[in-house]
Amino acid sequence: MLTSTYTLVALSIEQASARVVLQSLLERWNPAASQHAAPTPRQFELACDALRAAFDNCYWRKLDKFVLPALRRAGVAPQLLAELDALTMAAIEARADAHAAAAVQDKAFGAALERCCKLLLERLDREERDLFPVARTHIPSESWFAIANDMLAHDAWQHENRGYPAGRMPGKAIAPNGAAPAAVGQAPQPARHYVTH
To answer: Which of 42, 100, 107, 173 has the fewest C-beta atoms under 10 angstroms from its C-beta?
Structure first.
């Protein structure tokens, strides 16, 4: 129980960080509060970069890497997981709309960015409200111990290899449990359909 509590607290901290990034982006690019002058190409470029970073910050979380696969393996809460997947897919579409609008410097970019951020925030809310209690109840204690070990190993690997993008470990790196993580640029198997790069 202590291990699951520690792990969920660590995940909650990560959730809070993702939420701050998304809310900050919404505040910086609020269509209702936009300047009278049309955004410059550079402003569109910077906003696209910020949206990409915010989306990646949500996608490469430990929750997606370690907890969701455990729930999928256990066959727990398939409807909830499908709803979370649907929110992510809708956010991917909104992000694509935002990038398409930015490419032609269309002011519709702001609305698409806002839609993407709000979908990701809705997913964070659903995870905290619905997914965390399910995970606490249905993931066995030995699995929580393995998840906590994997999270610590991942943090140590990221600390030692700061040049790699967040969440991507090379295929040569071996986790303490003997499993080989995904190769650089590959998404974890259960979430492969989220990759948009």
So the answer is: 42
| Distance from C-alpha of 178 to C-alpha of 60, rounded to nearest angstrom | 21
Given a contact cutoff of 8 angstroms between Cβ atoms, the answer to whether 188 and 175 are in contact is no
Burial (CB < 10 A; 0-12, 13-18, 19+), residue 178, is exposed
Task: List, for residues 125-147, the tens digit of each pLDDT value.
Answer: 999 999 999 999 998 888 888 88
* Look-up of token digits 């929110």: 87
Q: What is the pLDDT of residues 43-90, one digit of tens each?
A: 899 999 999 999 998 888 989 999 999 999 989 999 999 999 999 999
- CB of 62 closer than 8 Å to CB of 11: yes
Longest dimension (CA), the chain: 58
Torsion of CA 97, 98, 99, 103, to 10 degrees: 100
